[in-house]
C-alpha cells in the first residue's frame, strides 16, 4: 500500500509539472490585452500598435491595444494590477511610472512591486527645441538668457511630473539657473506654443516635434544625449553647444506584467518582442518616431527601474516636487 501511495504521488507530481509546462508552451491560449497609459495617435501608441500587430501574427492570437490615458498612468495601472497574472493582460507605460512617479505621490493605487518589467519598447534622447524665430542659436544662448534674468525664461512640458518637466528641472540644477516651468495638457499644444513663442523652449523628440521642425517652425538647439544622432548630425549635444558637459535627458516606454506572472511567460514575451524589433522593416519605423530600441532582458529591465528610481528619488527630493 505504501508503495502504491508513493507511486500515485509521484505520478500526480509528474502530471502537474507536465500540465504546467504544456500550458506554458501554448502561451498565449487566448487574446492578449495591452492596456496603454498613452493616448490614441501618440508616438508610443503608434509604435505599440506595430509591435502588437507583429506579436498577433507570431502568436496566432489577437493582441488588442486598449488606450486608457490620464491620471499619471494610474487608470491603466489599476486595471492591469487587478488582472490575472498569466500574461493575458499587460501594461504599456512610461518608465517614469516606476522610476519617478512613486516618489512624487504619497498615495498611489499601485506599488512598483505590483508589476514585473518585461521589456522596454523604445527609448529616446531629447532635443532642446525653440521657436524658429528665436534669437537663440545654441543652448549656451538659452542658459545665458536664463542667468541674465532668473525666472524669466520658460520651458514647457506635457504635464507636471513628466519626464520633460523633471529633466527641465535637472537642467536648471546642473546649469545653476532658474527658469519657470509651464505645464500643458498634450504634446501638440505644447510644441505649437513653443513655435509661437508663447513658451521659450521644451524637450522634444523627432516623433513629437519633428514635423514642426521640418516645416521650419521649430529649431533644435541641442541634443541631450551622449553623441549626435545620425539623423540629425548638425545638431550638437548639449556640452558642445555651451551647456553642461555630459548632460543627458531621455525617456523610455515599456511593457509590464502583473506581479506573479510566470517568469517563463515574461521571458517569452521579452524574446518575441525582441524578435519583432529584429525584423528589417521595423527599425526604420522607429527612426521615424525618433526612437531607439533597448533590447534587454527582464532582469536588466528590473535593474534599470531600480537604478533610475534611485536617481529620480534624489532629484524629486532636491526640487521638492509633490503631486498630491
Descriptive keywords:
324 residues, alpha/beta, 5-stranded mixed beta sheet, 11 helices, 18% strand, globular, disordered N terminus
Question: Can you offer a commentary on this structure?
Answer:
The chain is an alpha/beta fold and 324 residues long. It has helices spanning 2-25, 43-59, 74-82, 96-99, 139-148, 163-175, 187-195, 206-214, 263-277, 282-289, 298-319, and strands spanning 32-36, 63-67, 89-94, 115-125, 127-131, 154-157, 180-183, 201-204, 218-223, 250-258. A 5-stranded mixed β-sheet has the order 2-1-3-10-4, with helices on both faces. A 5-stranded mixed β-sheet has the order 7-6-8-5-9, with helices on both faces. Helix 2 crosses helix 9. The longest helix is centred in the first third of the chain and has 24 residues, at 2-25.
Short description:
This protein is 43% helix and 18% strand. It has helices at residues 2-25, 43-59, 74-82, 96-99, 139-148, 163-175, 187-195, 206-214, 263-277, 282-289, 298-319, and strands at 32-36, 63-67, 89-94, 115-125, 127-131, 154-157, 180-183, 201-204, 218-223, 250-258.
Write the layout of secondary structure elements.
Layout: H1 2-25, E1 32-36, H2 43-59, E2 63-67, H3 74-82, E3 89-94, H4 96-99, E4 115-125, E5 127-131, H5 139-148, E6 154-157, H6 163-175, E7 180-183, H7 187-195, E8 201-204, H8 206-214, E9 218-223, E10 250-258, H9 263-277, H10 282-289, H11 298-319
